[in-house]
Amino acid sequence: MPAIVDPAVEAYAEAHTTAPPAHLEAVAAETRATLSDPGMMVGRLEGRFLELLVFAVGATSILEIGTFSGYSALSMAAGLAPGGTIVTCEIDPVHAEAARRHIAASPHAGRIEVKVGPALQTVATLPGPFDLVFIDADKGAYLDYFEAALAKLAPRGLIVADNTLWSGRILDPGDRSVDTEAIRAFNDRVATDPRVVAVQTPVRDGVTLIRRAA
Ligand SMILES: C[S@@+](CC[C@H](N)C(=O)[O-])C[C@H]1O[C@@H](n2cnc3c(N)ncnc32)[C@H](O)[C@@H]1O
């Protein structure tokens, strides 16, 4: 994926981020060796960013939409408050199986539940409230995920949406693809929706943070 930030700056930021633990290095290595599109993992920089957000919020209940092989869920688990749990939604049974294996082999076994199926259907069955919701699945559904997350967000909760700069494609007026248009629509909505306060950050591929307005 082309970097949003100057690659030298991105590399410097990664190098000055605490290195991942061995179990996450193993997840990354196996994912690169066995699954297609390993660039979908959030990786070292965004993984630690998520962990620190979870820690700062004091989250005990997290919803993730888009598990892949479990890298981001395991990153967030490291920041959970005592007794905290994560529910993560994945539509692809191969990805879900890989994630379950990695979770079982990690220090966070028992704190992360992988639910297989279309995320919107899964989320409808979950009571919430969630202290943090991480959205990182099919881009065409981002606005639906935003609504589903907001409905189950704790009063001081945080919605975190990944890939919101979409390798810079959102700035290319010639790019009218479905995913690019969906991310543009999501970005436009969250910046103007009176129910929320949002900030677009250029972390990795763009990470948007959203809270309820007072
Ligand atoms: C970008 S990857 C997630 C990466 C993961 N958060 C990480 O950092 O390792 C997106 C994942 O969402 C899954 N996905 C796509 N559409 C979905 C849907 N409708 N419901 C649930 N999961 C979906 C894909 O199979 C893929 O594993």
Describe this structure in words.
By secondary structure, this protein is an alpha/beta fold. It has a single domain, classed as Rossmann fold (3-Layer(aba) Sandwich). 41% of the residues lie in helices and 21% in strands. It contains 8 helices and 7 strands; from the N terminus they run αααβαβαβαβαβαββ. It has a 7-stranded mixed β-sheet, sandwiched between helices. Helix 4 links the parallel strand 1 and strand 2. The radius of gyration is 16 Å and the shape is globular. Bound molecules: S-adenosylmethionine (SAM). The site of S-adenosylmethionine has 19 residues, from helix 4 and strand 2.
* Major beta sheet summary: 7 strands, mixed
If helices are DSSP runs of H or I spanning 4 or more residues, what is the number of helices? 8
In angstroms, what is the radius of gyration? 16 Å
CATH topology: Rossmann fold
CATH-assigned homologous superfamily: Vaccinia Virus protein VP39
Structural class: alpha/beta
Question: What is the helix content?
Answer: 40-55%
What string gives the helices and strands in order?
HHHEHEHEHEHEHEE
Poorly predicted segments:
none
CATH architecture assignment name: 3-Layer(aba) Sandwich
For the largest beta sheet, what order do the strands appear in spatially? Answer: 3-2-1-4-5-7-6
- Could you tell me the strand content as a percent range? 15-25%
The chain-level mean pLDDT equals: 97
Could you say how many structural domains there are in total? 1
Give the C-level CATH assignment: Alpha Beta
Shape: globular
| Distinct compounds present | S-adenosylmethionine
Strand segment count? 7
Alpha-carbon distance between the two ends: 36 Å
